[in-house]
Amino acid sequence: MNKLLYQVDDHPPLIMTVLLALQHMLAALGGIIAVPLVVGAVLKLPSDQMVALVNAALLGSGVVTFIQCKGVGPVGIRLPCVMGTSFAFVGAAISVGLEHGVPGILGSSLAASLVMIVGSFFMPQIRKLFPHSVTAVVVTMIGLSLVPVAIDWAAGGKAPGANYGAPMNLGIAVFVLVAVIALVQYGKGIFSAAAVVLGMFIGYLVCLGLGMVDFSSVHKAEIFALPQPLHYGLTFPLSGIVAMAIAYLVTMVETTGTFMALGGATQTKMRGKLLARGVLCDGLGSAFAAVLSSPPVSTFAQNVGVVSLTGVASRHVVALTGVLLALAGLFPVLGAVVVTIPQPVLGGAGLMMFAMIIAAGMQMLSKVEQNKRTGIIIAVSVGCGLAVTVRPELLSKLPAFVHEIFGSGITVGALMAVFLNLVLPERPVETGDEEDELVPQAMLTKELEVA
């Protein structure tokens, strides 16, 4: 396992801490803003309500990120964990919103957050469902599921589009990717640790010179905006609560996998009690976000890539990221400046970060005991996860609740790995066939903790 530049409880120098915190913020900001924008656009909210939704999402994500990193009593995993609004809730939010409006979305989110809050008390039992073979699959699927996002960024948006895959977009993305690689490989100290943000800054300057930066969002943004708790009100439709509860169950599986990946990246033994604190913060944080008029929050997988790439595992760095996100919610003009970063710049850096998660997953897979049983678990789980990742239209003709549950490659891969791990027998084969001899589950779990 690679040596960390800064351990979980280390305090880097102030300037480096600020740069590293900004690095995490840049990796997460697009995802945080995207969810309220997508939901608001579908519900055709007026511009002032869209702005309020985005500001609430930034503020809520920042506060919950700070608590997750620093910890308050039994709440918070105390690892470098960025929280943000999750696309896992978009389908449920839109279906509820079309019938019951934003008050129905927020009320359903608040009520259904009990699923995650109660579920956190059973994390020691849930942890047993994630031995080394299963965890390796989940970590790998996190990276594989995020790479298409980086590719779309690099190409300049969503396909098909008039500018999708334009040579200029791809050239900028490759330039940023090369810059990040050079800084990681040859940079020293702060230049290596802050490679992502420095590479993006260089790419941003190039785009600025080419006239690719649009400042219209900055001109329209308010300088300061107070939070507006219960701005939309709350209603509690039963159908909405059920839909959100399913989304929370799916998110709990994804969050568990992300925490396991984070444990590997930070060299932390991911025990059941530690998972419980993190999931409890997710649940309580989503309840807080609903009161704040924000969509639910969950742990961002992409920021695990930042930790893996830079070797900076300090939770105090990411706690400052929480402060920066909260400030962006209170000062919308700050968030608007960050939004001006062209997508190809994000794509070049994102491809590097997400590929690092795949590399971490492959390293974990290489340590899994090689036999027929684990081979089936890995092959089928990754294959099914990739199926819905590269061909999301696969589920288009199935009922909406099926798409809600199985629309994420991370979730499908994780659920399939857990299921196969439970149902496939662990009986040893004939004596002498050492290649197929099975290792008890406890040994695999112990191996993960040692790693």
Automatic annotation (TrEMBL):
Entry membrane topology: Multi-pass membrane protein
Transmembrane segments: 21-43, 49-67, 79-98, 104-122, 134-154, 166-184, 191-212, 232-250, 317-339, 345-362, 374-390, 405-424
PROSITE patterns (UniProt xref): XANTH_URACIL_PERMASE
Entry keywords, A to Z: Cell membrane, Membrane, Transmembrane, Transmembrane helix, Transport
Upper classification of the organism: Bacteria, Pseudomonadati, Pseudomonadota, Betaproteobacteria, Burkholderiales
GO cellular component: plasma membrane
Name the UniProt record assigns to this protein: NCS2 family nucleobase:cation symporter-2
Pfam families found in the cross-reference section: Xan_ur_permease
